[in-house]
Structures
1.
Amino acid sequence: MAVGKFLARIGSVGGTARWSAKMYHHLNKQYPGINGKELHSRLVLIRYPKAHENAHTLLEMCDQMKGLRGFAAMVLAVEAGMLDNNKQTIDIFMEVIDEELNKAGISELIANG
């Protein structure tokens, strides 16, 4: 599974986690202490600046997301069908998300809600 984890890290899983962390840091400078639904909603609107089906789907899910980790996972579920994988693969993807958020300096509170 080391190859699979490597590919997830350099591919869309790691990229989505890194993008989420980068945008969080950007938003936190503009809106200190931003978190929860407000954070998730703003991230969706940044990711989809024009009306898009994925934006509508993700905005409806904002209340259910737990932290930046949950946000990244839901983006991947909607955009890439992450939840269609087996449990072992999903666990690897979540591990990559956690590691990338940690590397980007995201606190446990923001990462996990």
Note: The chain has one domain: 2-112.
2.
Amino acid sequence: MPHKKIIEPTSHASSNRIATRPKNANTHPGTMAQNALRVRRTKEEIQQEKELKKAKKEAKEIQKIADEAKKVAGEEYVAERELEEAAATANAGEDFPRKRLRRRAAKG
């Protein structure tokens, strides 16, 4: 009897699995997509971003100073009004003299 030729599988025991193409075997699937999305900025774009960031920071600082000045002005206004009210109540007692109560003589 003639011997049958034994055919060895090309891959390991899992011959039913789908094989990756050799070109893609050692690359991460997301790397190509990430490279397509990466965009290198020019010096002008970087400079514009820096200037915009600096302008925002200056505007924020100016707003902070304005808010602080407004707060101080408000506190001074309240203190002024409290002094005026205290003076008005002190003067109000002089404008309206209190009536003296007479004591009744005790009988008895």
Note: Residues 86 and 92 are 10 Å apart (CA to CA).
3.
Amino acid sequence: MADSTIQEYILEELRGMRADNVNMRTEFNKALLDLVERTARLETDNHSLMGNGNPGRIAVMEKAIGILKGWRWYVVGITVGAGGVAGMAVTIIFKR
């Protein structure tokens, strides 16, 4: 009788360990899937930024910034010219 009770206790422990193992495996698989999804998202974002063979968003932004840098000298020239014209106009008006 004692032997059968011990056997039942051992079987219960083994079943519990098996259930814990299945739960642990399920959690590991969920974590692995999450990791794979995040890696795929990072790769997609990287290809979007760098271009994956085509001009990416970074290349487009660099080009736009280059154009803006070129325009800044036109703006400076127009501002200086307008300031000079306004200064001459004020001088002519107040000279009278």
Note: Helices lie at 2-50, 57-95.
